[in-house]
Specification:
Length: about 450
């Protein structure tokens, strides 16, 4: 399989490639108006996909499918659906952005008539999109790209497309921003676009002595913004290995940042709040601008949501050497756990999913918090024996909203085919969910689900 193939395999079992969660203030999505009061029932949309409302897409039908996946999703103003992720065969992966209409058909006006933009830097190597953002009529996708089979040669990747899925030549170099950040082994983990159309991104990279997290800011044309940090870069904390978990969210004049630090099997999450103007830590949060979320267990994840009530963090943790569980933690805007949410500020899933679970994303809409991910159907720790779940909870108490799905939850049939929801987007009275399926068979396909 090779070193890059192994990276892809292990990253996808438990969803170890971080995804961009879509929540926060700042430039609100046109498909998710602030204060929207639409209450979703969480039932399959009639006539879409299978009985669960799921449509499967083999991204590279001309070659044997291996581990295709959508890891992020957005809805355009015209109702068309954008998904970002990758299509892969056993020895390579190409980053993709796919656009469909509301019926799930590939959009022939996108990607030179294919309905898909495919980024392949070097044939046969590894390119991954971790997320996608809308910037007016422009589409911005981000992730990592490898120039060689050396695992230390990954570079941060940001791609700008016009409304037809063609590279925007006015951005960076021919529509593509590629940069090692410091020495290399870099990746863009999360990205947002502020009200000035500047791009703010969380990256991990090696600086010559070790791995660190960096907050970078680019101008709208894909150049480092010299007014932010040190020539567009703010250094955060060091980490022992290059974790792929991270998220950023705007909140007024501040930015919340979630990162996973530490060595393998000793991970812990750290939540920061910095000023959006220059990236300096806001000491009114947690006394120093950051709080550690580790509590003796391994903690990791990319789920981050912010509203006026507080900050919500998805923490996946190890309860034993063969068991992983998930929980949602809530803090007020001073960094203190909320005593009204769940049990002492925590909503734990260990009693719901006895074999374990993993939360990929948190998203807020219509005064609800949605948590999406996968639940294990057996003690198989590779994550391949999984089914998806999607919870709808109250943002103040953490209790499940009874009117959604089956008492606040929808979940896949108990077949354990290697299926998970990675991200959702809400467009009025429709909930779109992106993910993957059939990973257990080794012939994984990307999935799009439509609920109402």
């Amino acid at each position: 399989m090779g070193r890059l193939g192994l990276i892809l395999f292990f990253c996808l079992g438990w969803g170890l490639v971080g995804c961009n969660t879509k929540l926060g203030r700042g430039r609100a999505s046109a498909t998710q108006p602030p204060g929207s009061s639409v209450a979703l029932a969480g039932v399959p949309f009639p006539g879409f996909g299978n009985l669960e409302g799921i449509l499967s897409l083999d991204l590279f039908p001309d070659s044997p499918s291996y581990k295709d996946a959508f890891v992020d999703i957005e809805v355009q103003k015209d109702g068309k659906i954008l998904m970002a992720g990758w299509g892969s065969a056993p020895s390579f992966a190409d980053a993709v952005v796919v656009r469909t209409d509301s019926n799930g058909s590939l959009d022939p006006t996108f990607g030179n008539g294919t309905g898909m933009f495919r980024y392949e830097r070097v044939t046969g190597l590894l390119d991954l999109f971790h997320g996608v953002e809308l910037d007016g009529d422009r589409i911005v996708a981000f992730g990592t790209s490898f120039a060689s089979r050396s695992t230390s040669r990954g570079e941060a990747l940001i791609v700008a497309l016009d409304g037809n899925g063609v590279l925007d030549a006015s951005f960076a170099s021919g529509g593509v921003f590629l940069d090692p950040i410091k020495v290399g082994n870099s990746s863009i983990l999360s990205l947002k676009i502020n009200s000035d159309r500047k791009i703010v991104a969380l990256a991990s990279a090696h600086d010559g002595t070790g791995f660190k997290y960096f907050l970078i800011q680019l101008t709208s044309d894909g150049r480092y913004d010299a007014t932010f940090g040190q020539n567009g870069v703010v250094e955060l904390d060091a980490t022992v290995i290059p974790h792929t978990y991270g998220a950023i969210r705007f909140f007024g004049d501040q930015i919340y940042i979630l990162a996973t630090l530490g060595a393998s099997r000793a991970e812990k999450q750290r939540l920061y709040r910095v000023f959006a103007a220059d990236g300096t830590l806001d000491s009114s949060f947690g006394g120093s601008g950051k709080i550690d979320l580790g509590d003796g267990n391994r903690n990791w994840g990319s789920g981050l949501a912010v509203n006026d009530l507080g900050v919500y963090v998805a923490s996946n943790y190890e309860s034993s050497s063969v068991m992983f569980h998930s929980q949602i933690r809530m803090f007020d805007h001073s960094g203190v756990p909320s005593s009204d949410f769940g049990l002492n500020g925590r909503l734990d899933h260990s009693s719901d999913f006895i074999f374990g679970s993993h939360i990929h994303q948190l998203r807020e809409s219509a005064n609800r918090i949605y948590a999406v991910g996968g639940r294990m159907m057996s003690a198989d720790v590779t994550g391949l024996d999984s089914e998806y779940f999607l919870d709808c909870i109250s943002p103040s108490s953490g209790s499940r909203v009874e009117s959604f799905g089956n008492r606040g939850r929808i979940q896949g049939a108990s077949t354990g085919v290697g299926r998970s929801v990675r991200a959702i987007a809400i467009d009025g009275d429709v909930l779109w969910a992106a993910g993957h399926s059939d990973y257990k068979s080794g012939n994984g396909v990307a999935t799009l689900q439509k609920l109402k």
